[in-house]
Amino acid sequence: MTAQLPFPRADVENLTREEAAQRGALLEVTHYRVEVDLRGAPAPKAETYPVRTRIDFASSEVGVSTFLDHLGASVESLVLNGETLDVDAHVGPARILLPGLRAENTVEIRSTSRYSRSGEGLHRFVDPSDEQVYLYTQYEPADSRRVFPVFEQPDLKARFSFSIIGPQHWQLRSNSPAISRMPLESGEAAGAAKGEPAGADDAAEAAGAAVVGPLVRVEFAETPRMSSYITALLAGPYHHVEGHYRGGVPGGETVQIPLSVLCRASLAEHFDADALLELTQRGLDFFHAEFAYPYPWGKYDQVFVPEYNLGAMENPGLVTFTETYVFDTAATDAQYETRANTLMHEMAHMWFGDLVTMHWWDDLWLKESFADYMGSLAVDEATDWTTSWISFANGRKAWAYVQDQLPTTHPIVADIPDLEAADQNFDGITYAKGASVLKQLAAYAGREAFREAARRYFSRHAFGNASLGDFLAVLEEVTGANMDDWARAWLQTAGVPVLSAELDAAGGGAGRVLVREQGVDPATGESVSRPHKIRVGVHVMDAAGETLALHAAQEVFLDPAAPEGLTPVPELSVPADRPRLLLPNEDDLTYAKLSLDPESLAAVLTYPVADPLARATVWAALWSMVRDGELPARRFLAAVQQLGLGIDEIVVVQGLLRQSLTALERYTPADERPALQRDLAARLAAELTRRTGGDHQRATARTLATLSRREGSQLELLEALLDGGAADHGISGLRIDEELRWAFLQALAAHGRVSLDQLDAELAAKTTARARIAHRLATAARPDRRVKQAAFGQALAGTDDSGEELSNDHLTATVDGFTVAGDPETAAVIERQTDAYFDALTDVWERMSQGQATRVVSGLYPGAQDLDAGAEPTEHPLALRTQRWLDENADAPAALRRLLIEEQDQLLRGLRAQAAAQG
Ligand SMILES: [Zn+2]
Question: What is the sign, positive or negative, of the torsion defined by CA atoms of 169, 175, 179, 184?
Fold first, then answer.
């Protein structure tokens, strides 16, 4: 269908870098006044709400046109510089044309927007526990246009004055503190108080007829200059706890910052507000000292919101987090630490990203890499957790290494031609590789230089925008060195360097250590060397003969120009008579895959490494080797069971458990898989009895549930645990709460051992948001042809059986439930949908939001695949089928193709590892 468009590109949601650059050069946006009328939000099935927007902006050229971005439901009126414009002729599906600009302009728009169910724009959620309605906004990279008409690009910063109309008893919040809170007289419409002609009836009607109790209009203080993607609104009967911060930049003025933390009322009993407020205070102290720039946004609210698409979002003064961080079931210390890391990450953004913002999404790393690095640094230095860099080495970096070896990898400074590309770029490169490279930079240039560079960057670009060159400029000032080569090697070239350490044979075996650095630029296939500062460690068997302990370490700069990439490490002794480990990335200072020499590999597969960070670095190296087909999955699984499960740091154990499941699914040859799965399940069951309470036992129980869902060998044990029979199996201290109950039920459902009635009864007994998601997964996991077909249809349609749109969590649960194959017949039913999957891809991409479509496209891509003995991985039917789709859909959206290319690559990587393990 082609509609008659009122002006060129009126329907184009996908704003390009070029368009943004042109508009950015033309305009200077001064101020927005936005009023959002949420009086109708509590009504059942509320769909839309009225919005009034006034924007003041200047144009450097007179008489030309520009456009606003808008993805609302409708525009009722459009007035530019006092002149009413014909809506039909000026409003397209995605843009609003503003013709005949003057030097100074004011545009006023009355419009209607839709509540979101996909977490993009203004999301509306009904709490199943108590039927209360909760709303919050999420905009990055470009969804404020779903709420109000806006020049949606990060470098058109402006001041914003928001107001919200809503029920008096609700929390109504925005980036700035409220400055007035006036009761709304009955019948009064949005905007009427400002003397505008009524339209009152329309507004009230559009807002929904049901009014719940008295209403208020809350006006918020004008914000400092900021980008539209970090503006935010919040409304609902949120539970809130207030606090305050007193402190500031050392040597500077003492300031008071009001703090609050909020969550849904039904989660209040689980909300550890005091702990969150204390972390917040510590974080503010830390960043004040680190950046020497006072917190710029007045107050600091942190809200834990339902059905959130991501971990958190750094809206100045109103940070949103996923409410999975409100731990209503038992959580491990690693989960608390992850939450603290996220809290610090978002707080770092108040400076990196909010105060100084990238011009365009190419430089997304300028905020995400920094926030990711600073988040870990703050947890390490400003909290009681001592495992921050261990989590980083083993968790965050694993994400980066995986992504950086995909064919779709890209330099940290990316080429982002448009918004769709921007959306796909919130990835392991931008976050975790960028943070790893900054950790290396802090080692390479020195922590003090790094800190000073950040301080100059903020004071120079506060409330403005910046790009790579601006950061390099301050870095060069403080180091006195030219950083171009460094930036080219690390920020502008993709790919993972490989480090190895070896003994210099020419040295007579006495043990001079050489470090080899090599890399390939995936874009050109040419070899590339990078500058590093590293520490090389030698770990040897201790006197008791039990562990590999640090014997000596030496710092060294690796010169990219070193002959053959080999750098000798001076004065590092290596005893020749005992088991030993040469670790070329001691302290995990740099970003590199490690290739362990044979002696080191044999040692770490046999003996535990004593130092926690070295240990985490070694396990990361082992996992890389599994993925590269250099270490058979069975040897990795054996090492996890022998050495891994006993590790103290729960964050490492959780990572190893996850990797074990992946190793079984992807990297294990079919003929070895059943026995290895059974072995691991039995070992986990034994581990449940060996531990009494605590994080390790809980992590074990979760993994066992997931594994049993797949292979079904410990179902009697899960049944017994559900029925309160833990003691009969020698298990004590395990809290079988809502989370574990559902995890066990899902495993049992996958093997046909619980009925739909039982699942329904469990949900009826406790109807929480979590339970509804878990119930959906369990239902779709049942081994029944019709169940699978229905789940598949719902996932592709994005709706439930009554045609209602699925929220993101429910969509994921449907997808995950569908892919569970409890027995071979069910696996065959799932496999028969493969063609339908490929046939539906472009339609799904077109119909759904990018976030939803990604869940479906990646989630439904066929899972565990086996390689026949002697077969060629690239000839595997699924690899061929994927290639056929890629060939036939060369013109499909780049972001969709990217997902398929990545899935195909992961498939081939797994099959190659299987082939290697088969020998
Ligand atoms: Zn971030």
Answer: negative
